[in-house]
Design brief:
Elements: H1 5-11, H2 16-50, H3 54-75, H4 79-82, H5 84-102, H6 108-136, H7 142-171, H8 174-194, H9 199-205, H10 210-220, H11 242-245, H12 251-282, H13 287-312, H14 317-338, H15 342-370, H16 376-403, H17 408-446
Length: 448
């Protein structure tokens, strides 16, 4: 009887090596958070140097998101063909070199172009590391593992804000991009040394020396080595294009629900993360207080991602995410009401960061579980990429509305509604997901 290594991993306790791999994924997400959100913290200084309008700042904030969409849609699916590890290394090179280039630019147009290239690298890393963390976790702790990986984004964004406060005044905003580029290249070297390949990928695609690589990994996990490569039974037998496989049978409805949930959550998330410091300053806070609140929102994200992961180990992730979405919407409206009182706004900002980052972490936890190994990176990449469309539109739309004189409080209220809409999509997705699992289990039990 052949061993099912993946089932063993799902059922066994988590080994130290599995947590180590997840730690590397967290570090990769720290780099992502820093590289993406650093633009939000340097925006006031960049705007002052080049006298930029709200729409131009919105373009700078959105250019990285355009790149992330491109990276998620066009690069991330390649991980199903060349492996998660190799794609992550290639994307680290792209992100690192373009971040270093941002420190040398002399115009906002060139900065926007390089931010786009950085986004391409980050988009590929984010989708692939998300899948890798999910594949190395067991069934019980999978949501927590992916959520912990998501804490890296908040940590990276927080570091970007702290460095902005510490360095911009003395060394200028270019020093922040230089620090990000050097750190990304350092992470490239660490990943090339320590990051393993996905076992799901090795079993499904069987590249050269697959058995040796699998045995090296399972040995580190405390499992017995395989004498021969096991047969890999594809659960999905659908023919057609790679994109078509995401819509085969009942999977199509789940894919659409996931895509639009990502769109709405990212639309609201990037507005809060990108525009909060600048809006608070326009509402009367000092620049230091506005940036400080932005940092608190990022710090809150570290806790929010971990909390929803722990909650998901005790209840269904779809219900945990719906709860977070509802509380996020309420907190957005509360933040508007108390924004004139600095001390209270800082506390509400911390709570808002906790909730809104938990929502994103919840989506990242859900997305890999829906798809089989041979289309998992493509499915996750496309979902994140579709979400980036919302992220792209969000800060640009906000900048245009603010330039037209829309009150910041009114704009915040509009964005609070999107989280309510996302609740209905997540509950529908959860219902369809568990129904398909029950039907699949029933068909396996009754098969001759």
């Amino acid at each position: 009887m052949e061993r099912d290594v993946l089932s063993e991993i799902n059922q066994n306790n988590m080994s130290r090596y599995q947590w180590f791999v997840i730690l590397i994924c967290i570090c990769l997400n720290i780099i992502d958070g820093f590289d993406v959100m650093v633009m939000a913290f340097t925006a006031p200084s960049v705007s002052a140097e080049w006298s930029l309008s709200g729409a131009q700042i919105g373009l700078l904030l959105s250019s990285g998101l355009f790149g992330m969409a491109a990276g998620s849609i066009f690069l991330a699916p390649l991980a199903d063909k060349i492996g998660r590890r190799l794609l992550i290394l290639v994307c680290l090179v792209i992100a690192g070199l373009s971040m270093l280039g941002c420190a040398l630019v002399q115009s906002h147009g060139m900065l926007a172009a390089l931010r786009f290239i950085t986004g391409i690298g980050v988009g590929g890393i984010l989708a692939s590391s998300n899948v890798l963390a999910s594949e190395y976790a067991n069934a019980r702790w999978r949501s927590l593992a992916v959520s912990l990986m998501s804490t890296g984004y908040g940590i990276g964004a927080t570091l970007g804000g702290v460095l902005s406060l510490a360095l911009i005044e003395h060394l200028g905003w270019r020093s922040i991009f230089l620090a990000g580029g050097v750190t990304t290249i350092a992470m490239l070297l660490i990943s090339a040394w320590l990051l393993p390949e996905s076992l799901d990928y090795l079993l499904a695609k069987r590249p050269k020396q697959a058995l040796e690589r699998i045995n090296a990994t399972v040995n580190r996990m405390g499992l017995n080595k395989l004498p021969v490569m096991p047969r890999y039974e594809k659960i999905s037998t659908q023919n057609g294009s790679e994109l078509g496989k995401l819509f085969a049978g009942q999977l199509g409805f789940q894919t659409l629900c996931l895509w639009f949930a990502f769109f709405l959550v990212m639309f609201g998330f990037y507005f809060v993360m990108s525009w909060t410091p600048k809006i608070l300053i326009s509402m009367g806070m000092s620049p230091h207080q506005g940036v400080g609140t932005g940092i608190l929102i990022s710090i809150g994200g570290i806790f929010g991602a971990a909390i929803i992961g722990l909650l998901a180990s005790r209840m269904k992730i779809f219900y945990a995410l719906s709860l977070f979405l509802g509380l996020t919407s309420a907190c957005v409206f509360l933040f508007v009401a108390v924004s004139s009182q600095v001390s209270i706004a800082l506390m509400v900002g911390l709570l808002l960061g906790t909730l809104i980052n938990g929502c994103v972490a919840g989506l990242y936890s859900i997305s890999p579980t829906i798809y089989d190994a041979e289309i998992r990176s493509r499915g996750v990449g496309y979902a994140i990429g579709f979400g980036r469309i919302g992220a792209i539109l969000s800060p640009t739309v906000a900048g245009i509305f603010l330039d037209k004189g829309i009150a910041p409080a009114t704009l915040y209220a509009y964005y609070g509604v999107v989280f309510i809409l996302a609740i209905f999509l997540i509950l529908s997705l959860g219902s369809a997901f568990y129904r398909s699992k029950k039907e699949q289990n029933f068909s396996l039990k009754t098969a001759p």
